[in-house]
Write a structure and sequence with these properties.
By secondary structure, the chain is of the alpha/beta class. It folds into 4 domains: 3-42 and 348-430, no CATH class; 63-339, no CATH class; 449-655, Alpha-Beta Plaits (2-Layer Sandwich); 660-739, no CATH class. Helix content is 45%, strand content 21%.
Length: 739
């Protein structure tokens, strides 16, 4: 495990347990149960566009407004219902299920007709099932032993949770004797929606099937005595080919996988008007009117009949509609049973176990990420989980809980993000405290974005080291009282530091008048050598502006101030950079042989008569990074104090487009003079160096603070070698005897 991940896990291991544990506990409350049910309703609405067709054996017939206008106001004389039973029998329907209560309170002349036609239908092979309602304040009418509807007797297990009613409103006696009945009781959830129905009705000490279960039993020809009921498990219906298993909870309730609601989406139940079936079957089969439209094919079908008359409809809110005919609830329940399309609940142990697993994986995987990435990961995680829940519901009827896990996930991510924000604020303050005075604000912001706190230790990287020192600072400091010296140095150092920061340099330290800077750290900078050279040129130019300003201030400053010069040494190479010191106090600095060389080059600049001296490594890197925009003057090879290996050095002269013609001509003469010098042509060298000396930009006696220049130095060396020739193995290297 990476250090960041291990550290993050050590700090946050308790968060998933607390957040998901609390979320799991809240899912047991009525409020979250209802919220979870609503999310399943939304998934159900979306699923309509992708679901398969219902079982083709189910057909819906509705007593609608058109029927009421063309037959009679609801409730109609039951002779009409008897006539429809007769017609549906003629079309060889397997089962006709009425979601209607034919109780004795509305007994009329048509009751005998309906009972008679029901008996004839059953004799012809079409079974008739009608509705009953437990729980009404009407004395229970016990079915006679000869009635087709019989009690469920094979009830096993714990029965205490089964809902019990004292009364029941049953069909009128003639209808009970002719056909079957089932409970149409459809309870609502707390929000009024219908999402589950009881398949077992407990009236007194007896148990009876619901309308949909009775329809299935009649269709499969399974007698009540063979039906086995295990509350909390399932209802079992044995047939010669298989045993049908219908899952129920401990209350005997069946969770509806509600799919079809006549809401204009396809596929859906084939649905016909009550009067449409009457007219088409009568005209085609009984009246045999030529050209009469054929009725729908109802052979072997299960026909559900219900009412949708405006103001009189037996309707209620379902997952797909605010007002669905109740007959569709029973039809959907039967469709679930016939097709085995049951809701599969994802086990709690699996859901919450995986939630914890992914939570810890997220803590480890996103340990080093920023708050922005954490927020993005939170959004993607929530969206991904919701998409998974929708897909599982669409293509497998798997109910993956959404509210609880998302609540736990959101709470967890909120805690982690809050902690990360606090941590980043702490790191931000640490970085600002450590680097705020050393590097530019822009670089500080980049360090903060990286989000790594400062810590003890270093890394090896290529940088360009920058050392500068004020020429003859000791004598200058003797001429000024301490307060004025501090004021002078503050003005000088402020100008230098601002320019260094502007080029992306990092201040290492001030040592009196010495300024130590690194380019390319703490964050990598591709063109660090070029930026270091630019900074050196800008510092020299700024010091020129300050000299002019101090000169204008007259007697405020001694002449030495107006002549103040600074020397700069630059070297590029691999160094160790980082926080060095003790565990309680450390500084961000650089160490290494190439750092020491930069310091020695700053000292060597005085002996070579230049103000900005670069190693060959810096010059080459600058050409690679900045092209030919800067001009260098090769000064030969030297061995600095403390080293045994010679290094080629150059003076950083200026910008290519800022040099005068005289300076360019002087550089050409110097280059030819150096070539002559290295080939021992002292006469040629003297001639070229004399010409370059006349064109030097800095001349002693003319320019304040100038004590020499490269042309004068090489003329001195030429004179020495002319008087006394160097040994045969002389290679042109000059060895510095002092720092």
């Amino acid at each position: 495990m990476v250090p960041n991940a291990e550290n993050n896990l050590r700090k946050t291991w308790w968060m998933p347990l607390v957040c998901f544990g609390l979320a799991f506990a809240l899912t047991k409350t009525d409020l979250l149960r209802l919220a979870e049910a609503r999310t399943l309703d939304w998934r159900t609405k979306y699923r309509q566009y992708f679901q398969p067709a219902p079982d083709p054996r189910i057909v819906i017939a509705l007593f609608d407004d058109y029927t009421e206008a063309n037959v009679a106001p609801w409730p109609v004389d039951r002779a009409w219902h008897g006539q429809l039973n007769k017609f549906l029998t003629a079309e060889k329907a397997a089962v006709v299920t009425w979601d209607v209560i034919f109780d004795s309170r509305y007994k009329g002349q048509g009751d005998d007709d309906m009972a008679r036609e029901t008996q004839r239908a059953i004799a012809a092979g079409t079974r008739i099932v009608v509705g009953a309602v437990p729980g009404r304040t009407v004395a229970a009418n016990e079915p006679a032993a000869a009635d087709p509807t019989q009690r469920l007797t094979r009830i096993e297990g714990d029965l205490s949770a089964l809902e019990q009613q004292t009364y029941a409103m049953l069909p009128f006696p003639e209808m009970r004797a002719a056909g079957w009945w089932g409970s149409v009781d459809v309870p609502h959830d707390a929000d009024g929606f219908i999402r589950e129905i009881p398949l077992i009705a407990r009236v007194g000490a007896n148990y009876y099937p619901s309308l949909s279960l009775q329809t299935l039993m009649v269709y499969l020809q399974v007698p009540a005595a063979h039906v086995r009921v295990v509350p909390g498990e399932a209802i079992y219906l044995p047939t010669p080919n298989r045993t049908w298993r219908i899952p129920i909870d401990s209350r005997g309730h069946f969770l509806l996988n509600y799919r079809y609601d006549l809401v204009g989406q396809r596929p859906d139940f084939p649905t016909y008007s009550y009067v449409e079936l009457l007219v088409k079957i009568n005209n085609h089969r009984f009246e045999k009117i030529p050209g009469a439209p054929k009725p729908p094919d109802l052979a072997g079908k299960i026909v559900f009949i219900g009412g949708t008359v405006t103001g009189k409809a037996d309707a209620g809110p379902t997952p797909l509609n605010r007002s669905s005919p109740r007959v569709l609830v029973h039809a959907n329940a039967l469709n679930n049973m016939l097709t085995g399309d049951y809701i599969q609940r994802a086990p709690d142990a699996l859901v919450w176990g995986l939630a914890l697993l992914f939570a810890y994986a997220g803590i480890i995987g996103l340990a080093h990420r920023s708050v922005f990435h954490l927020i993005g990961g939170t959004v993607l995680g929530a969206v991904g989980y919701c998409a998974l829940a929708v897909l599982l519901w669409m293509y497998g009827s798997w109910w993956l809980p959404a509210v609880g896990p998302l609540l736990g996930f959101t709470g967890l991510r909120s805690l982690i993000i809050s902690q990360r924000i606090r941590e980043e604020q702490r790191i931000r303050q640490q970085i600002k405290s450590m680097f705020g005075t050393y590097v530019s604000p822009r670089l500080v912001e980049r360090l903060i974005l990286v989000g790594q706190p400062p810590q003890l230790g270093g890394i090896e990287a290529e940088i360009t080291a920058y050392f500068s020192d004020i020429q003859d600072f000791s004598s200058l400091s003797e001429k000024l009282p301490a307060p004025r010296l501090v004021s002078l140095m503050n003005e000088y150092l402020t100008g230098c530091t601002d320019l260094i920061h502007a080029e992306g340099g990092t201040l290492d330290k001030y040592v009196g008048d010495e300024v130590v800077v690194m380019f390319g750290a703490p964050l990598p900078v591709a063109d660090h050598a070029y930026r270091a050279c630019l900074a050196a040129l800008r510092v020299q130019a700024r010091l020129g502006e300050l000299r002019a300003k101090w000169s204008r201030e007259g007697e405020k400053w001694p002449p030495a101030v107006a002549a103040m010069r600074t020397r700069i040494g630059l070297n590029t190479g691999r160094c160790v950079i980082g926080n060095m010191g003790s565990s309680t106090r450390f500084n961000y600095t650089m160490m290494g042989n190439d750092v020491n060389l930069a310091a020695r080059l700053e000292s060597a600049a005085k002996r070579l008569g230049v103000h900005t001296l670069c190693s060959e490594a810096t010059q080459n890197a600058c050409h690679q990074q900045g092209g030919s925009r800067l001009v260098f003057r090769p000064l030969g090879r030297i061995v600095v104090k403390g080293r045994s290996t010679a290094v080629s050095v150059s003076e950083l002269v200026g910008h290519q487009d800022g040099l005068s013609d005289a300076t360019r001509e002087g550089l050409d003469h110097f280059a030819r003079g150096l070539a002559c010098y290295q080939s021992r042509d002292w006469t040629g060298a003297r001639s070229e160096f004399e010409r370059s000396a006349a064109l030097e930009p800095n001349v002693p006696g003319r320019d304040p603070g100038i004590t020499g220049n490269p042309s004068l130095l090489y003329l001195e060396w030429v004179a020495e070698h002319s008087r006394q020739a160097p040994p045969a193995d002389w290679d042109g290297v000059y060895v510095l005897a002092e720092k």
